[in-house]
Design goal:
This protein has helices at about 10-20, 30-35, 50-60, 60-70, 80, 185-205; strands at about 1-5, 25-30, 40-45, 75, 85-90, 105, 115-125, 135-145, 145, 155-160, 165-175, 175-180. By secondary structure, it is an alpha/beta fold. The chain has a single domain, classed as Class I glutamine amidotransferase (GATase) domain (Rossmann fold, 3-Layer(aba) Sandwich). The strands form 2 sheets. The chain has a 9-stranded mixed sheet with strand order 2-1-3-4-12-11-10-7-8, with helices on both faces. Strands 5-6-9 form a 3-stranded mixed sheet, with no helix packed on it. Strand 11 and strand 12 (about 175-180) form a beta hairpin. The longest helix has 17 residues, at about 185-205. The chain is globular and about 45 Å long. Its EC number is 4.3.2.10, 3.5.1.2.
Length: about 210
């Protein structure tokens, strides 16, 4: 079973429906024991970084997520991807899981935020989670905070996008994947991403 973690923030039903449409066994879960039993874990999320961390901790899910990051196929979506990093200027007092280095900051300059809508993502390396996709595809975004694409982040950067600046749109390290965009809202290309994650979970295909 793929566990879709419910910590009170996220597009849970749309993610679950997308997996169900693909014929993959995925379930919304809210207990530590359910995360531990799962073969793979999805951490979705929409909203405030600090509130997300507080919710995860108050519901007793922090340790189970940490353990899943170390040993299972893991997918972070939108805010769920941001939570895998060190933190965000949105909530400086709330450290993330620190699976990846870097802190998210608000888009700079005289531009409209949040960044909402379809935008292209350029994949800069091959990965089992992007199998069957072209090197550049369009996906749906909704976010105000971003991680600029810097050379120091290149080792784990899977894809980049641009909204007045180049920012990181997809990451990968061993069994852990993250997407700033919403694959569950991105039509056939997004479904392909989720299908590939399902293959990684059930076929034990990992990027290492």
């Amino acid at each position: 079973m793929i566990a879709i973690v419910d910590y009170g923030m996220g597009n849970l039903m749309s993610v679950e429906k997308a997996f169900t449409y693909l014929g993959l066994n995925a379930k919304i879960v809210s207990k530590e024991s359910e995360i531990k039993k799962a073969k793979g874990v999805v951490l979705p999320g929409v909203g405030n970084f600090g509130q997300a961390i507080a919710n995860i901790k108050s519901r007793g899910l922090w340790q189970a997520i940490k353990e899943a990051l170390a040993e299972k196929p893991f997918l972070g979506i939108c805010l769920g991807m941001q939570l895998l990093f060190e933190g965000s200027e949105e909530s400086p007092e709330s450290p993330g899981f620190s699976m990846f280095p870097g802190k998210f900051t608000l888009f700079k300059g005289d531009i409209k935020v949040p960044h909402i809508g379809w935008n292209s993502v350029r994949f800069i390396k091959n990965s089992p989670i992007t199998s069957g996709l072209d090197s550049e595809e369009f996906f749906y975004f909704v976010h105000s905070y971003r991680l600029p694409f810097l050379s120091a982040y290149a080792p784990f950067t899977l894809g980049v996008s641009e909204y007045h600046e180049v920012f990181i749109a997809a990451v990968e390290y061993k069994n852990v994947f993250g997407f700033q965009f919403h694959p569950e809202k991105s039509g056939k290309k997004g479904l392909k991403v989720l299908e590939n994650f399902g293959r990684i979970v059930y076929g034990n295909i990992c990027g290492y």
